[in-house]
Design goal:
20% strand; 773 residues; single chain; 8-stranded mixed beta barrel; globular
Amino acid sequence: MLKGHSANRQALTIIYVLLFACIISCIYYVSSVRSAIQQNFTQEIDTLLTQRTDMIQNRIEVDQRRLVEGAARIGKNNYFNDQKALQNYLSTYSNQHDYKELTVSKADGTTIAADGIRQNIKEEAYFNEAMSGEYSISKPFQDPLTHERFIIYSVPLVLNGKIVGTVNMTKSVRIIESELLNNFYAQDGTCYIMDAAGNVILNSPSRSGDHESFNLYNRMTSEEVTANENLVLVDKIKADLAAGKSGIVLSPVNGVPTYIGYHKVGGEINNWILLTFVDTNTVMSKGQQSLMKTMVLCGLIVTCLMGMALYILYIRDKAQRGIEKLAYIDSLTGIDNVNRFRVRAAQLLGKYAVDQYALVSLDIQNFKYINETYGYPAGDKILISLAHVIKRKMNDREACARVSGDKFILLYELDDKKFTRYHAMVKSYMQDHLYESIHMNISLHITAGAYLIPPQKTDCQANIDEPLINLYEAEKRPLKSAIMSMIDKANLAQKAGRDNAVESLHCYDDALMQTFVHQNEMEAMMKGALKNGEFKAYLQPKFNLKTLEIVGAEALVRWISPVKGFMRPDEFVPILEKNGFIIEIDFYILEEVCKKIREWLDNGLLPIPISVNQSRVHINQPFYMERLAGVLKKYNIPAKFIEMELTESMFFDNTSRLIQMMKEMHGLGVSISMDDFGSGYSSLNLLKELPVDTLKIDKVFLDETANSERSQIIIAQVVEMARKLGMEIVCEGVETQEQAEFLRGISCDIAQGFLYAKPMDMEEFDSFRKQSS
């Protein structure tokens, strides 16, 4: 009996131990599933938040374009000075669109609508902002008769280069809220648009009772139980938004844990912020089935002690599959996500020689355009078909995953350094699978970056059959961090490859990282440098080849940084052109030149023409000419002393737009020169079409004349042709007497180069000019 009791006690002890172990395991599984669900749905909410922010901005831009088009028609047809015609136009235009009415306000605030003159809006903030040249959106206001709420869009009305009034579009808040804020997270979420102070501007249609003005930040901190916690949360949201960041946080709202997402709406005409609320009950209900199964099984285990061991194995296997599906599989395409990829890549690199592999990052160029043009369902089908093709082409020693959007990553087993299998896979997708996925003829360009993994020693020797449940342990391994670094390098190579129209796959090297670091340094410094006056305008004189008199100068930018020292244009101009900041630099140099010419005039000195370089980026700027005219007017200088210097490559970007822009420059009295002629593939036909006043022969072209009789003949013929076309000729980069004699012999007009003078700052230029006269 004692032995029996002892055996029973031992059996009970074993059962209790097993039971306790099973309970602990089940709790762990439930926690893992919940964590994975929360992580997955947090990413889903973040994606929806970004898409909704883009949709709001796109809709605002559409309304703005309509309003700008309306303003353009009013100006073009001179409706502004004919009230009857203007009222007819306003009535017709309003009936064609989904807003209440279109009105025009004069500079004194008098407002004209289709049915006559309305109240004066001179004191309204949106009117004054539009009169200052900005696009503006009013705060919501309520119609006292219908109690319906409206918002007014307002843009400047420009006639003959002058703002004479505004064009205003009144749109129902109900329509805006229905279009932009409805159906967030399958109608389970609530959206608000507020200003930086937290004042609600718009909210979801489902929040019909919230139309009274209120402050969302105050409401979030008004609950006594969570006031202190939410106060810290509000401070974090404010700090993130001030830093231009978006985010998702979890906090109690009305006693319910709630995901709060926040994202700043882009654009320059408003300071809107999108705030969304999705309670955790809504999120977790989508994964409730898996959680309930696990919990029920745990309950059965408690009551079925004898079958506990076998049942645990069954539950473990089932839970592993559930976690893998929820946490490691991309919900759109069905292939691995980046979490699974990191585990799989660590396993493969731990088993096979790492130098057999490359990490490839790829995406579809201009995929946002496909979504906007053909719709998100078509874009999703393209991603799904591409994912399936990649998955089928990978072997069992490779891995692939969708990161987000249209970005995919591959752990690619090298067949050769030419990536033959990869290119064959892309070609197969384009030819055999793309049309099948959407039944539309769409031209796609897939760009990729590759990081060739070098031979290395690692202390991570992972088992290829290791179950995914050990991800949490694998995260601690050194190779995991190395994989993220590899992905970053592949992304960097892929980013560099976007600018290469020939190569669709670009490989990483150390020079790319150096370029990336240098570019980031320049971009971090540029705004402060402009504000602190680190950019300087240098002038290089131009000389008449016959008299050797100074007849002009070219303005050149130099960056004198207290950190980097003196920097030449080729060290920073390409970076500024890429990020668009070159626009501000060009106008800064133009203003410095205008100040100098104004100084000469005020001191009774005869000015000389100065050429100012203009980047190709200006072609697509809608108000470039207005800004140029504004600078000339500001300093009240004769436009004949300004020459706009356009590089040869600029003439091949958008010829029709450029010709129109050049005609408008001539209308201001500014002359135009084509810079770097001969450095690219110059089209003689363009010289016939473009209204160019001066042709500048590139230094590279001139250098070839020393050893090439053909180059001498070509330059001589270009000079003769340009002279017959009525153009002035300037040859830059003249460094030797032989070059000067050659140019003088072919009757070239003007020379510029180190033979005569180097670029110099404004003060030194004045001294040099005085000595030369």
